[in-house]
Write a structure and sequence with these properties.
Radius of gyration: 11 Å
Helix content: 10-25%
Number of strands: 4
Distance between the termini: 29 Å
Largest sheet: 2 strands, antiparallel
Number of domains: 1
Shape: globular
Strand content: 15-25%
Order of helices and strands: HEEHEE
């Protein structure tokens, strides 16, 4: 997948919002290392997230 395609498919793991071009956080799952993206709103509200690969949940 190209970088442009990857940016277009990024979505918040908590709410599903397309986060391309927004102030979103990108980090690796503490358990398995899968890349996770969260939008600014979900980060600010401390919404729970779940890793799509291993099921790890965090605030």
């Amino acid at each position: 997948m190209s970088t442009i395609e990857e940016q277009e498919t990024r979505s918040c793991v908590s709410c599903g919002l397309n986060i391309a071009g927004t102030n979103a956080a990108a980090f690796k799952c503490p358990d398995c290392g899968q890349q996770i993206y969260r939008c600014a709103k979900c980060r600010k509200q401390s919404n729970l997230y779940e890793c799509p690969d291993c099921g790890f949940t965090g605030p």
